[in-house]
Amino acid sequence: MKMRKKIIMDVDTGSDDAIALALAMSDPQIDLLGICTVNGNLEVALTTDNTLRVVECCQAQERVKVYRGCEYPLVCTLQKGTGQYGIIPRRESEVTERGVHRKNLPLPAPVAKPQEESAVCWMIRTLLESEGDITVVAVGPLTNLAAAMRADGRILAKIREIIVMGGGHERSGLCSAAAEFNVWCDPEAMEIVLQSGCPLTMVPLDATYHAKMGQAEAKTIAAIGTPQAKLVSDLIGQRIEGYKNGYGADSATEGVPVHDALAVCAVLYPQVLQNVKRCNMHVDLGKGYAYGRTVIDTRDCEHSEAANVSFAMGADRELFVNWVMDTLGRKA
Ligand code: RIB
Ligand code: CA
Questions:
Q1: What is the pLDDT of residue 90?
Q2: For the chain, N or C: smaller number of CB within 10 Å?
Q3: Domains and CATH numbers, the chain
């Protein structure tokens, strides 16, 4: 059997994070060393609570521990009159009981608590103690990872790869006309990660919208019958309902993206990402309308800065959906 892939997941558990976590804890090829939570879809107390619920749904509480992370972005809520001054950025329109993300996942309240050690401290300690063979899978705002990089630069040489669900080139998120949500929540954090020099793969909206799942997949998954499969099926249904309620009846006719799960699939099957561009990427940190926009340099000219990301513009939906089904134990 091939060596298992060691990963740390950094999540802002809402609905697609939960699907990504259930798959990461279900695929035997993945060695999930621990989960860091962060403010994003919900405040960190709720993203932590939801993460614990998923771990217990997967009966993984003995082997997978949860570490509570940053409550606020690094800087973007500090300065009066700029950015998201004073608020914890999120799409309130989505965080309703009819939205894509809801306060509590449809699971029992967790029994376990998060670990005492903070996410940033645990991430630094785990990376420093490692053989340099850990992939960091970040599917929420990059606050924890950026803070860890600033707190102890020694981890940069210890990170095997970073896979980020975030950003967008031809697509923006629902939080702003220019930016995708995870980057918009903490633009400076994304830029710190970009300037780290670590091997970095971006799984942006351009890719995730090529790997949608719909009611048909939800029904097949529900038939698997395990608690994890029921959770994934229920959450695909919740996302479909949330998109319809928030963005119109036609917004989910071809299914909905399950953004974060595609990043986990890319850990095991990089070929799931298609039309991948090696390019230079920065984040617009100006306080104007494009604040938080990911800017990739697709020019082929001498003025371009060195490439610092692999940026996927597409995805192999069939490979992704088959991986989801097989990992959850699809009946033949
Ligand atoms: O833009 C999609 C991202 O924003 C996903 O990670 C989703 O969970 C939300 O955090
Ligand atoms: Ca997320």
A1: 64
A2: C
A3: 5-329 (3.90.245.10)
